What does this fold into?
Amino acid sequence: MAVAHATTGPWRAAAGVGAVVGAAALGVDLVTGHWSTSILAGPVGWALFFFFLVGTVGGQLRRDTGDRRLRRWADAHPWQSALPAAGALLVLNTVALTLLGGSGLFGALLFSLLPAGVLLLVAGVVGSVKAARRG
It folds into this structure.
């Protein structure tokens, strides 16, 4: 059910926000002169975080999803409905940091726990507040 609910988010808008944030982060790195082989790791991480944040929170706040049962389940389980996005962010950010940032797998995994945890926290709180206001 959590994965099915994750598909209801505004993923096109999330892709746009992620691309803008990633491009802005890359621009800041280029302007400030942080030139290195890992110049893409930070912007990719920011882009992934905002992509999943907008998609997940937007999916929880949307009311026009087609399946009422899915909406009711997500309202009853706000933390579980945020888990697929947090898990995907954890995996993709770990891969990006490992391949682009030159970090080892263990270091990249530890560093990726923070944004995934923040995403889970924000999406869970938004879903809990939404459910409390409806109930």
